[in-house]
């Protein structure tokens, strides 16, 4: 029998390309997109080989983004910190070794500091303070470091370094993130190399900066020029302070995989709107044996039919397995008689998945499917112990447009900003009434007109609008062309009740008058009304700084003492020693004008809120602050 496994939040989309979503519908399984990653414990340094005295475990770290090599360490666990000195500046090597690996790690680099992560102790992914560097090289953050040949003439020793596709770095002292899929070199039975090492995908702060970069050999600073199938990760410790947290990984082998035999199938005539009870179907249209799930090839009808598949699943290794289906219309997955994934047709084309435990052996596998109209798609994915996500069986998926051509992009080129209305994602949610504003100064943002809220902000380049214009514009999404930092995306005002805030979360019911006008610089000024309060919101670039300025103006017919201007919301908002507030470790807020009031950190429904009291004994007031990232 199979055993069910229940897990919490999934940390990384499968093979770095999928978003984590959860479907809350009684007729459908959850969309678990990946098996949980293995976490490197950071309660102490036992996960590393002979750590030097420059390495320690901490609970939190702060860094002044304007001060070189600034790092302030606080007691606790969960954060790995390097503080090199003249007497101690050793690299740190993991106790585990890896071949193919999927790695996710957050890191904090102070101003002017430098480090690096060596995969297999040989191939360096650079860590450097590269904030606001216009043309990054292989030596900047996210660069794949160059190789080195001492035998070449002066100035020609370095070669094969790879710069990141875009500078996706955040300001010093903020928590940044690498997500990496690395392929180890391959060797034949005689030890001859048959394939080079490969960085298949490198994401920095959510932005793809390298894809399929092949390395002919180890980069400079490698432990050895000899390559191998397995070796540890090494973190550079002699170039400056750096901190790491949430160090998670999966290692993969290249041999074990699930397999299926041929499927018996039966096609039934069916015209319902939801998945049928197959025991009640009587009209058989076709039946036979197939080695694929190409439902459109198996059915004599193009629409209005249902299919039952049955076959065997061969499991070579015991462990936890994730199964996922992507189905246009609906269908269920059964293993050993147990329903693993349920989709009665209410979740059209979405990925749905569950995790189960299987022992080594062979199991009956059954799938159901029904077709109403339009697309036909049936894909079964899996992931298992040391097995990366793969397709177990599938139909030929439909294509929604030609995305092989160069993307359609927009970049502000004149003295005026570029304004684009459309759809924009915020987390897993598609916001439909948004305005994205691109500035020639190189800082950009998206704003939710319907909810009167700032959604996200990013730096050059501006916008990819391919999904708005190709494939019939089906998704209609504007996609930032650089790493974007997301805001809480709620109206920037709340009511104070006692010591806690109460937000206007049901804003569509109470928010009115949403509009914007263009000022003399061509920049939008947003206006809305809620509970008799008029709110104006103006967001624009700071002069020659790469920051965003924001002015929030409040006006009421009569003074109120219960309103707070909310500048940021998050799980953790920290007041740093330099007077800045760090929000979720991802951006800074500097309050520049608060009308004589003091900014404070409030509690609101389990979150922290950075706020400033407004309209204290007056009919109008405003708050000015900067967003730095």
Q: What would your notes on this structure say?
A:
- The chain has 629 residues and is mainly β.
- The strands form 10 sheets. Strands 2, 4, 5, 7, 12, 15, 16 and 18 form an 8-stranded antiparallel sheet that branches. It has an 8-stranded antiparallel sheet with strand order 40-41-42-43-50-47-46-45. Strands 19, 20, 21, 22, 24, 25 and 27 form a 7-stranded antiparallel sheet that branches.
Shape: globular
Number of strands: 50
- Strand % is over 45%
Main sheet properties: 8 strands, antiparallel
Mean pLDDT: 91
Radius of gyration, in Å, reads: 27 Å
Ranges where pLDDT stays below 50 over 5 or more residues in a row are: 6-28, 397-401
Q: Tally the helices: what do you get?
A: 3
User: What is the percent of helical residues?
Assistant: under 10%
Structural class: mainly beta
Q: What's the end-to-end separation, in Å? A: 51 Å
Brief descriptors of the model:
629 residues, mainly beta, 8-stranded antiparallel beta sheet, 3 helices, 2% helix
Task: State the gist of this model.
With 629 residues, this protein is mainly beta. It is built from 3 helices and 50 strands. Helices cover 2% and strands 49% of the residues.
Topology summary:
Layout: E1 3-4, E2 38-39, E3 48-49, E4 55-62, E5 72-82, E6 92-98, E7 100-108, E8 114-119, E9 123-128, E10 147-148, E11 158-159, E12 175-183, E13 186-187, E14 193-195, E15 197-204, E16 207-215, E17 231-235, E18 242-252, E19 259-260, E20 263-269, E21 284-290, H1 295-298, E22 305-315, E23 319-328, E24 333-335, E25 338-341, E26 351-358, E27 361-371, E28 377-384, E29 387-394, E30 409-410, E31 418-426, E32 429-438, E33 443-448, E34 453-459, E35 463-464, H2 466-469, E36 479-480, E37 485-486, E38 493-497, E39 500-503, H3 507-510, E40 511-518, E41 524-530, E42 533-541, E43 548-555, E44 563-570, E45 573-575, E46 581-583, E47 587-593, E48 600-604, E49 607-613, E50 620-628
Antiparallel strand pairs: 1-26, 2-18, 3-6, 4-5, 5-18, 6-17, 7-12, 7-18, 8-9, 8-17, 10-11, 12-15, 13-14, 15-16, 19-22, 20-21, 20-22, 22-27, 23-26, 23-28, 24-25, 24-27, 28-29, 30-35, 31-32, 32-33, 33-34, 34-37, 35-36, 38-39, 38-44, 40-41, 41-42, 42-43, 43-50, 44-49, 45-46, 46-47, 47-50, 48-49
């Amino acid at each position: 029998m199979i055993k069910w496994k229940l897990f919490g939040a999934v940390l990384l989309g499968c093979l770095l390309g999928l978003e984590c979503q959860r479907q809350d519908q009684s007729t459908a399984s959850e969309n678990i997109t990946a098996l949980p990653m293995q976490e490197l414990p950071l309660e102490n340094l036992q996960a590393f080989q002979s750590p030097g005295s420059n390495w320690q475990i901490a609970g939190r770290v702060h860094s002044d983004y304007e001060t070189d090599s600034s790092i302030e360490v606080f007691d606790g666990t969960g954060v790995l910190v390097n503080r090199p000195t003249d007497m101690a500046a050793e690299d740190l090597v993991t106790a585990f070794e890896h071949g193919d690996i999927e790695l996710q790690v957050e890191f904090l680099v102070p101003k002017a500091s430098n480090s690096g992560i060596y995969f297999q102790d040989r191939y360096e992914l650079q860590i450097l303070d590269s904030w606001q560097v216009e043309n990054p090289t292989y030596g900047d953050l996210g660069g794949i470091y160059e190789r080195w040949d001492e035998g070449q003439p002066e100035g020609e020793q370095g070669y094969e370094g790879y710069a990141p596709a875009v500078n996706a770095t955040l300001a010093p002292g903020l928590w940044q993130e690498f997500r990496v899929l690395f392929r180890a070199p391959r060797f034949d039975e005689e030890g001859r190399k048959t394939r080079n090492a490969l960085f298949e995908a490198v994401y920095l702060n959510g932005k793809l900066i390298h894809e399929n970069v092949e390395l002919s050999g180890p980069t400079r600073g490698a432990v050895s020029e000899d390559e191998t199938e397995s070796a540890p990760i090494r973190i550079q410790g002699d170039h400056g302070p750096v901190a790491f947290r949430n160090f998670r990984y999966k290692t993969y082998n290249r041999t074990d995989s699930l397999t299926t035999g041929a499927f018996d199938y039966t096609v039934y005539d069916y015209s319902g709107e939801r998945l049928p009870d197959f025991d009640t179907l009587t009209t058989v249209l076709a039946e036979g044996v197939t080695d694929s799930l190409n439902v459109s090839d198996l059915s004599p009808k193009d629409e209005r039919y249902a299919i039952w598949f049955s076959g065997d699943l061969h499991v070579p290794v015991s462990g936890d397995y994730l199964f996922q289906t992507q189905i246009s219309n609906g269908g269920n997955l059964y293993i050993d008689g147990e329903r693993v994934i349920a989709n009665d047709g209410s979740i059209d084309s979405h990925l749905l998945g569950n995790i189960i435990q299987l022992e080594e052996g062979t199991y009956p596998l059954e799938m159901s499917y029904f077709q109403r109209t339009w697309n036909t798609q049936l894909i079964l994915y899996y992931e298992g112990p040391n097995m990366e996500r793969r397709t177990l069986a599938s139909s030929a998926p439909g294509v929604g447009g030609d995305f092989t051509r160069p993307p359609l992009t927009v970049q502000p080129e004149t003295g005026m900003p570029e304004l684009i209305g459309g759809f924009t994602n915020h987390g897993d949610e598609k916001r439909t009434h948004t305005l994205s504003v691109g500035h020639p100064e190189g800082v950009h943002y998206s704003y939710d007109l319907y909810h009167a809220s700032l959604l996200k902000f990013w730096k050059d380049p501006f916008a990819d609008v391919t999904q708005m214009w190709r494939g019939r514009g089906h998704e209609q999404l504007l996609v930032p062309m650089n790493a974007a930092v997301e805001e809480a995306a709620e109206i920037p005002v709340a009511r104070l009740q006692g010591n806690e805030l109460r937000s206007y979360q049901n804003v569509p019911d109470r928010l009115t008058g949403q509009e914007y006008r263009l000022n003399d610089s061509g920049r939008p000024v947003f206006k809305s009304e809620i509970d008799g309060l008029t709110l104006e919101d103006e967001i624009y670039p700071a002069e020659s700084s790469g920051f965003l300025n924001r002015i929030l103006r409040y006006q009421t017919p009569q003074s109120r003492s219960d309103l707070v201007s909310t500048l940021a919301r998050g799980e953790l908002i920290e007041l740093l020693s330099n007077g800045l507030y760090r929000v979720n470790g991802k951006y800074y807020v500097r309050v520049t004008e608060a009308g004589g009031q003091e900014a404070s950190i409030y509690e609101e429904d389990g979150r922290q809120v950075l706020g400033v009291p407004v309209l204290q004994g007056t009919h109008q007031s405003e708050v000015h602050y900067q967003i730095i990232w």
